[in-house]
Protein: Glycoside hydrolase family 1 protein
Organism: Vagococcus intermedius
Amino acid sequence: MTVKTTFPKGFLWGGATAANQCEGAYDVDGKGLTIADVSPGGKERLGLLMSGEFPLEIDRDNYTYPNHKGIDFYNRYKEDIAMFAEMGFKTFRMSISWARIFPNGDDAEPNEAGLRHYENVIDELLKYGIEPTITMSHYETPLNLVKEYGGWKNRELIALFERYAKVILERFHTKVKYWMTFNEINTGVFGSFFSTAMREAVPQDNFQALHNQFVASSLATKMAHELNPNIMMGCMSIYATMYTMDSNPLTAIKREEENRLLNYYCNDLQVRGEYPSYALKYFKKNGIEIEIAEGELALIKEHTVDYLSFSYYMSSTVSTEVGEEARGNFFGGTKNPFLKASEWGWEIDPVGLRIALCDLYGRYGVPLYISENGLGASDNVEKDGSINDDYRIDYLKLHIEEMAKAINIDGVDLMAYTPWGCIDLVSASTGEMSKRYGFIYVDLDDEGHGTMKRSKKKSFNWYKEVITNNGL
C-alpha cells in the first residue's frame, strides 16, 4: 500500500541542540558553573555520572571537559543559524542555561549579559523566520544548587526555578511561542544527576525531586499563559517503545510495570495533571512518602501542558529469562533479534517510533512534538572534503516514513520534528565529538583539536529537500 508522505501545512521541521553541549564559553559574561561543567569527557563519563562518585569541582589533572569549549555556538551562532536557514528550518529547539541568567541559581538579580545574549540569538532566528523552541532546563542546573541545596529533592528549588522562569518568560514571551520546561524529565524516575542534580539515586529522593519539578513546571506554565495566551508550553520526556521477548504473561506484566514508570508516569502528571493510581500503589509498596504542600495538587491539575514532546532513539525488549543484553541500550533490556544497532550499540527501530506516536496520542490526545531523534555515528571526511553520511540519511528517512504513517494512517496529531544535534556537538552520554549526529560537520576531535570549521554533510542537502517538499 502506498502511503501519503506529505505532512500537515505548517509542520515544524527543524533541529535540536542544548546549551551545555554546543555553546562553550562556560565561564564567559558572568555565567556560573553548571552540573555539565564538572561532568568529565570520555568513555568513563556515564559510569561516573551513574555512580555519583565524580567530583563536584573541575579536575583538569584527571579529566577533560569538552563542553567548556563546545563548538563555540556562543560566538558562532550567526554563522550556524544562517546554515539552519539555508536548510529551511521552521523551528530550532535550543535551551537557555539557567546559570547564564542566575549564575548560582539563587542570586538576587539576573545577569543582564546572559539575557542579552539569548535575546540576540532569538532575534537572529526570527530574522530568518525560524521559530525558537526553548527548553528551560536541559541538563544544566547551576552547580551551586547541588552543593548548597542537594539538588531537586530540596523544595527550595521550586521557588528558585519559578524566579528563573519568570525572568526569561517576561523577557521573551512576545518573541517565543514554543517552550518546554524540563528535558527528559522521566530519567529522574531511576535517578539521574543530569535531570535531578542529585548524586545519590534513592527512590524516595527521586520521586520527591520529580514532584518538585512537576510543581515548578506548572508554575512556569501558569505564568506563560498569563503573560501570553498564545504561548504553547510543553513537557519533554524520553520514550522507549517496549516489547516482550516472548508471549509469557509474566513477561507482559513485567513490561507493563516498566512501561508505566518510564513512559507514562511523568507524562501522566504533566499532561493529565494528577497522580495515577498505579503510582500511588507503587509508593505505598516501596515506602515512598512525598511531601506535598497545600494547593500543589490543584496547581498541577489546573496548569497542564499544551503539547507533549519526547525524544526517541531506540526501543527496549523486556524478558523474564536470562538473555543477551542489548549493548549500549541505556534502558537495559534484552537484545532484540529483529533489530540492527548503531556502532554505539543503540538498537535502530523506526517502526517503534510509529508505535510510540500512536501510544502517546491515544493516551493523551494532545499534539506531539518529536524533539530528539537521530543517529550517532563516526563521520569520515573524504580527500575532496565531502562527508557521505548515507547511513544517517537512511536512518532519518525510515523514521520520517513511519511518522507519515502515524499521521496519515493512524490519525496522530504531530506538530514538529527536530532531529538531535542538527550540527555536530558534544555527546551528553560520552562527552565525545566523534559521536556525531549533525547535518553540519564541525572540525573538532575528542581532545578539542581542530579548526571548528563548519561544512555540509551529504545529509544537509537531503534534509533541505525534505523540508522544501514538506516530507514528500
Summary: The first strand starts at residue 12 and ends at 16. The CA atoms of residues 105 and 471 lie 42 Å apart. Residues 203-227 form the longest helix (25 residues).
